[in-house]
Specification:
alpha+beta, four-stranded mixed β-sheet, extended, repeat
């Protein structure tokens, strides 16, 4: 890992002639090294070198007393061999074994799976604990240095149940473990000298109940007959039953079903066990095979074995084995009996060619074949079933049509009732609307009446207030005029001229009363408020009050009527304004 252009060494040559500079050429197989120049024989690093890949490099250095190009004669040269040794550098931590090396970004790392172990509950295991995949140990990642490694616990041993050897890494128990479960220990391995180079791993120790019974097969020897690839093996000792290999564990109750128990065939992949049933996975010749099955308890590593004898008979086309039929004399269905003969059995248990002295074997009919009578009975049964199905379908269709007509009538009746209810609701709604309009009309009339009463009360209140200001006592029920204001130019009043420019001849006071002149377009109309009672006085006074202007006069009869009950009406502009304006409409 020396950097590029790092010097390795200088190897100059001498020339007795001493006629000039010498020229050098370096030959390197993988261009790991180079010269500083053609005239300087200093060797430099040209590429990074890894100790695990390159441990030594052989170089050839050539020198001559003439320039390299163009060639000049005469020229004398000489060569030398340089061996460069690559040494290791301490740049890797210890690696726990076993591990798999991987290169990440130019650096080499070694990853391990960790370790596992088992101990019994409330028991102290003697000696060193057996771990998987092997004993705990680590080696220096720099193989060229191979520095010593020391071990210690980082976490997981708070109860002080376990101990680890600093030099070997072996783990042992100091006391029994009182808690069931898994204890995870973290172990650190560091170099003895360069302690900053270290690595860690985990050790999972399972504390479990002690096993009292190992797994056990139901029988020590099994026999099976298989007819082809993918076919399930049969038990020749039980008619029409497949072979099933089962192992039990006494630690799991009366049934003995251990969920951690697995059964496999040892040493071959031609056969496979699926849920205890045997299948042939490859095409094999007719022969008899002797195998061994293993039942392993993954929780305790306890196991049991049993022998298995498998007979391959590809000529057997039925899964039913007649009890009196010998497998060694079976032939395929349809095979001529004259072509087969009894001979010495082969290794697979199938007869081979030989003499014809033995009687021919009987033909075995497959159990799945049906005769003509059976097929006829089956056809008749199917025909009867189809006829019954047709009858049922016809009855269902007819009933559906009847139900549809009945539902239509029910729908019409429901629609008729819905219409009646809707009409009743509409009539009720119209009656309700008429009631609402009547109540609204009566409420408006009441509001109008109340408004008139408020006007009367306000007019009387204004009259009393005006009388109080003049120092006179107001007549009960009458509204005296307010105090006269200063006349303003341009406004109508007493003695105002009409539009023709002439004053009214009756302006001013009259005997027994006074006259208020009123100017209208095209003429005038006097109003008498004295001894005589004007029939239109009430209406004019009322119009003056409603118009918000004019002077209120007390009539001569002494009753002081305000004129609110008059029936005649005049325009508001026809009244003479003699006082302040009151808008009390």
């Amino acid at each position: 890992m020396s950097p590029v252009d790092a010097p390795v060494g200088s190897f100059p040559a001498t020339d007795r002639d001493n006629l000039g500079p010498l020229y050098y050429t370096l030959t390197s197989g993988a261009d790991q090294f180079k010269l500083r120049s053609t005239t300087n024989p200093e060797v430099l690093v040209n590429k990074l070198l890894e100790y695990d890949k390159v441990k030594s490099v052989q170089l050839v250095l050539e020198v001559q007393d003439t320039p390299l190009a163009p060639p000049v004669e005469p020229s004398f040269s000489s060569t030398a061999t340089i061996v460069v040794t690559v040494t290791d550098r301490d740049d890797r931590p210890p690696w726990f074994q076993p591990c798999s090396r991987q290169e990440v970004g130019g650096a080499v790392v070694c990853l391990g799976p960790g370790y596992t172990g088992r101990v019994d509950h409330n028991e102290q295991a003697p000696g060193v604990l057996q771990l998987k995949p092997g004993p705990l140990y680590a080696v220096d990642g720099d193989s060229g240095i191979n520095e010593g490694v020391t071990y210690r616990f980082l976490s997981g041993n708070d109860d002080g149940v376990f101990a680890i050897s600093p030099s070997t890494g072996n783990i042992s128990m100091l006391k029994p473990s009182g808690a069931l479960g898994t204890v995870t220990l973290t172990v650190m391995a560091a170099q003895t000298v360069n302690t900053h180079q270290f690595s860690t791993t985990s050790v999972a120790i399972s504390v479990q109940v002690k096993s009292l019974h190992p797994p056990q097969f139901q029988q020590p020897v099994y026999e099976a007959v298989v007819t082809g690839v993918g076919a399930m093996a049969l038990d020749p000792n039980k008619e029409d039953e497949p072979l099933r290999i089962v192992a039990t564990d006494g630690d799991y109750g009366s049934g003995g079903v251990n969920p951690h128990l697995s059964i496999s065939i040892k040493g071959t992949s031609d056969f496979a066990l699926i849920d205890g049933f045997l299948f042939m996975m490859k095409d094999l010749p007719d022969a008899t095979f002797t195998l061994q099955v293993v039942a392993l308890d993954a929780s305790t590593d306890e196991s049991d074995t049993a022998d298995l004898t498998v007979t391959v008979a590809t000529g057997l086309t039925t899964t039913t084995l007649p009890p009196s039929t010998d497998l060694t004399n079976m032939t395929t269905v349809g095979e001529s009996t004259a072509s087969s003969s009894a001979g010495p059995p082969t290794e697979g248990g199938v007869t081979g060619p030989g003499s014809s002295s033995a009687p021919p074997p009987a033909e075995i009919a497959p159990s799945g074949r049906f005769g003509a009578a059976d097929m006829a009975a089956l056809g008749a049964t199917l025909g009867a079933l189809l006829f019954l199905c047709a009858l049922v379908i016809g009855a269902l269709v007819r009933r559906t049509r009847n139900d549809k007509a009945a539902w239509r009538k029910i729908h019409e009746a429901s629609a008729f009732r819905t219409g009646q209810r809707a009409g009743g609701r509409q009539r009720g709604h119209s009656v309700q609307q008429r009631g609402v309009r009547g109540r609204r009309r009566r409420r408006q009339q009441l509001q109008l009446l109340l408004g008139r009463r408020r006007i009367r009360r306000r007019v009387a209140s204004d009259a009393r207030a005006a009388a109080a200001q003049r120092g006179r006592r107001p007549v009960r029920g009458a509204a005296p005029p307010p105090p006269a204001r200063r006349r303003q130019p341009g406004r109508l009043g007493r003695g105002r001229q009409r539009e023709g420019g002439e004053a009214h001849p009756d302006q001013g006071a009259a005997p027994g009363g006074r006259v208020q002149g009123r100017v209208v377009q095209g003429g005038h109309r006097p109003q008498h408020t004295g001894g005589g009672r004007d029939p239109g006085q009430r209406g004019r006074a009322r119009r003056g009050a409603e118009g918000g202007s004019g002077q209120w006069d007390r009539s001569e009869d002494g009753r002081g009527r305000s004129g609110l009950h008059g029936q005649q009406r005049r325009p508001v502009g026809a009244l003479r304004h003699t006082g302040s304006t009151h808008n009390k409409s």
